Fold:
Amino acid sequence: MKRKLTSAKKVGGTLSVPGDKSIAHRAALLSILASEPVVAVNYPDNLDCRASLEAARKFGVVIERNRNTVTFTPPSQLELPADIIIDCGNSATTARLLAGLVAGSNLSVILAGDESLSTRPMKRIIDPLREMGAEVFDQDGHLPLKIEGKKLLPFEYRLPVASAQVKSSLILAALASKCSLTLIEDIITRDHTEIMLAHFGEGLSIREIKPMMIPDPHDPRKKRMSVPEDFKKEIKLASHSVVRGGTVDIPGDISTAAFFMSAAAISGGTLTIENLGLNPTRTSVVEHLKNIGCRVEIRDKNILSGEPRGTVTVTGGPLKARKISGDTTAGLIDEIPIVAIMAAFAEGTTIIRDANELKVKECDRLEATAANLRKMGVKCGLLEDGLAIEGGEERNGADFESFGDHRIAMAFSVAALFLDGPSTIDDDSTVAVSCPEFYNLLETFIQ
Ligand code: S3P
Structure:
């Protein structure tokens, strides 16, 4: 539905956001391979996570929901009618992770998705899965995929794209097939699969490559910095790896919180978010807020189910532009649309590079962001692999398009709070993909 958006005078307060979507997907999908129940505390009720929950149900997992706690009890044996169709909706995480799981199982499954998901690239998982020996029938690199599971071969792979979905797809394939796997990451991506397996599985080992000081061969009195490998991380899964099961306490989703923290950043207000996920592979947005001029305070830090969390207070200030590229862009993969909104209100020109992955998200997020920014009077250039956004103060309300993408809808709904005059968003229902509570939460801290 089209929604009217009005401007806000002040932003501030305390809130908590729904559970982390990435962690929730993994709890639901790993339960299919588990030997004992997986209890997911604070499982979010959004469309993407429902797609993984319903997929698990189709695999015979018994699901009981008590408020926000979902218990996934796995079947004693994986049995499914041949060529059963699983609808992954809009969720690429569901489709890509399940593709791996099925490829290494003894099942034959068809994975389908909505119009947007059917345009998203699947070659990135199909190619390595085929190298492992998987039988995958695709539509020119897209869904629907028909996968005939079989015993896969031990595999070593250096990930050519920085993608936690590809990494996790291969881990699930190896787990399902009980074959060994070595993965090399050049750019570190979110590690929730590894953390969950360390928490309630066995057989995974990780080597993170960190620079170290070694004696200088030319002058042993001196030391010099050395990086022992030309990659960042090695993940090894032994052929005897297992998923047992247990309780996963899911912290608040930092990618959802980013929209609210950014509202505080632009308004100069103070916002506190409790029980927020602070996994270091996800906190680039916190660093970014500090870099552009916000004060960020973190309290009550602790780790539950292997996942760090804490209470984060953001106080906005005059914002300044900052160049974003390389690993930083990868770390902000889901936050670039809202980072672009903050850039529009910052002093100076923000350049975002190395952001080609944004073109293959729920929509082309570079095009969508640029089009909507221009509607509010912002000078925004589309670069070959990013955006150049000229910041400023006078911004007009506009009729925004969501492009069927939840993060575009949320980003421009936040922008609308600070524009001169009313705005609209063409389809507010799309926020339900990751945060159906979005507009209610927004209302709790704007005046
Ligand atoms: C996700 C990984 C990222 C991210 C997506 C969720 C995950 O995608 O953008 O929202 O849960 O593994 P890529 O793996 O395509 O980078």
About this structure: Residues 22, 25, 93, 163-165, 168, 190, 333-334, 357 surround shikimate-3-phosphate (CB under 6 Å).
